[in-house]
Design a protein that fits this description.
The chain has 418 residues and is an alpha/beta fold. The protein has 2 domains: 199 residues, Enolpyruvate transferase domain (UDP-n-acetylglucosamine1-carboxyvinyl-transferase, Chain, Alpha-beta prism), CATH 3.65.10.10; 189 residues, UDP-n-acetylglucosamine1-carboxyvinyl-transferase, Chain. The chain contains 12 helices and 24 strands. α7 runs parallel beside α11. The longest helix has 12 residues. The structure holds shikimate-3-phosphate (S3P). The site of shikimate-3-phosphate (S3P) has 11 residues, from α5.
Length: 418
């Protein structure tokens, strides 16, 4: 699997502001992470690679970033934008964060509001969307805040701003979300106080460069896991997948649908748990997905919806309103795709009910969303499915098509896809 996208972004960000050089292995070379690499180069950080997953980041130290000459373009990446907003809120220069059409529609007040409380001079466009404009301020003050949305991006943005604040910044999340930032800050020598859903960071800490190994991305593995789990006769071994418990909701959900997934070779890489996962196909059954699992599988719902369509019985997902503000409105885009493939769905504000039983062939639009494209590409088995608008697969999974075809899928990419 390609390197974990969330962890790859964080390696580049923390490596850039560390003292000394950080070598990273397994870095994802998808466009989202490359946007983060380019952003730091524009702020004076020298980065070699990534070349075959290896990169070397010459950290400039906590206060060594320089003003970029132009707006920082983060392409399709919400993670890059929200984390960088936090990291740059305490810098002594003006800058602006911009993105593509999809990113330019996504909500940013969730991060700019707490940063404003910390004293950042930060603005969004009307409606709380990008661009985010940051102006040099007089330094940040620490806050103790409780987040209203379950968002690792917001939590991480606040913690990164907290590095530059005066005093101790604390953030409490409503439910646990991925904790890669916390683990990686610890790997760079920054002590965090973590108690339940509350995490605190002391301002002024310096980061010590280190070596990082990035595990395979469970969100990329999800397409293979979901497709193989629901196809009797499949037998797939996926090596080196990150199995951080804040990310394994997909495994729990598939197992509750009857999937046969076996973990082996458990180990640790860069403070993250890793395992090999073997999945053997069976007929899945529909379930009511526990809303408590939603944040732990937040990026995997396109794959879960597609698996539910081929399962026996009905699957209900609720408590997943956040899916509406991802790279696309993933509830609407998935429902439209399922309808186009002859699957009956009922759409709710915060989820969807799917009648299982199989999909027919047809044509779907990915809405420019990498995960919708890959979910339907790997789920289609019975009849040909044409998926439009797949270019953004390269944001998270370069080489998806050839890897998928090497294990028995039959995917053809048309060069005239817009
Ligand atoms: C991410 C957190 C999640 C996830 C995104 C990556 C991260 O977003 O959907 O793809 O790297 O922190 P939210 O935390 O906003 O839900």
């Amino acid at each position: 699997m390609p390197g974990d996208k969330s962890i790859s972004h964080r390696c580049v960000m923390l490596g850039a502001i560390a003292d000394g050089g950080t070598r990273v292995r397994g870095l994802l070379d998808g466009e989202d992470v490359l946007a983060t690499v380019t952003a730091f180069r524009s702020m004076g950080v020298d980065i070699d690679g990534p070349h075959e997953g290896e990169a070397f980041i010459r950290g400039v130290g906590r206060d060594g970033l320089q003003a970029p000459a132009a707006d920082i373009d983060l392409g399709n990446s919400g993670t890059a934008m929200r984390l960088l907003a936090g990291l740059l809120a305490g810098q002594r220069y003006d800058c602006a964060l911009v993105g593509d059409a999809s990113l330019s529609r996504r909500p940013m007040r969730r991060i700019t509001e707490p940063l404003t409380l910390m004293g950042a001079r930060i603005e969004t466009a009307h409606g709380g969307t990008p661009p985010i404009r940051l102006r040099a301020g007089k330094g940040l003050a620490s806050i103790d805040c409780t987040m209203s949305v379950a968002s690792a991006q917001v939590k991480s943005g606040i913690l990164l701003a907290g590095l530059y604040a005066n005093g101790r910044t604390c953030v409490t999340e409503p439910v646990p979300t991925r904790d890669h930032t916390e683990r990686m800050l610890a790997a760079f020598g920054v002590a965090l106080a973590r108690e339940g859903r509350r995490t605190c960071i002391e301002g002024g800490a310096r980061l010590a460069a280190t070596e990082m190994d990035v595990p395979g991305d469970i969100s990329s593995a999800a397409f293979f896991l979901a497709a193989a789990a629901g196809r009797p006769g499949s037998d797939l071994l996926i090596r080196g997948v990150g199995v951080n418990p804040t990310r394994t909701g997909i495994l729990t959900i598939l197992e509750r649908m009857g999937a046969d997934i076996c973990w082996s070779n458990r180990r640790t890489a860069g403070r993250e748990p890793v395992a090999d996962l073997r999945v053997q196909g069976t007929t899945l059954v529909g379930i009511d997905v526990d809303p408590g699992l939603v944040p732990l599988a937040i990026d995997e719902f396109p794959a879960i919806f597609a698996a539910a369509a081929t399962a026996r019985g009905v699957t209900r997902v609720t408590g997943a309103a956040e899916l509406r503000v991802k790279e696309s409105d993933r509830i609407a885009a998935s429902a439209e795709a399922l309808n186009a493939l002859g699957v009956s769905v009922q759409v709710g504000d915060d989820g969807m009910t799917i009648e299982g039983g199989g999909m027919s062939g047809g044509e779907v639009d990915s809405a420019g969303d990498h995960r919708i494209a890959m979910a339907f590409a790997s789920a289609s088995a019975a009849a040909p499915v044409r998926i439009r608008n797949c270019r953004n697969v390269v944001t998270s999974f370069p080489g998806f098509e050839s890897l998928a075809n090497s294990v028995g899928f039959d995917i053809e990419v048309s060069l005239d896809d817009p």
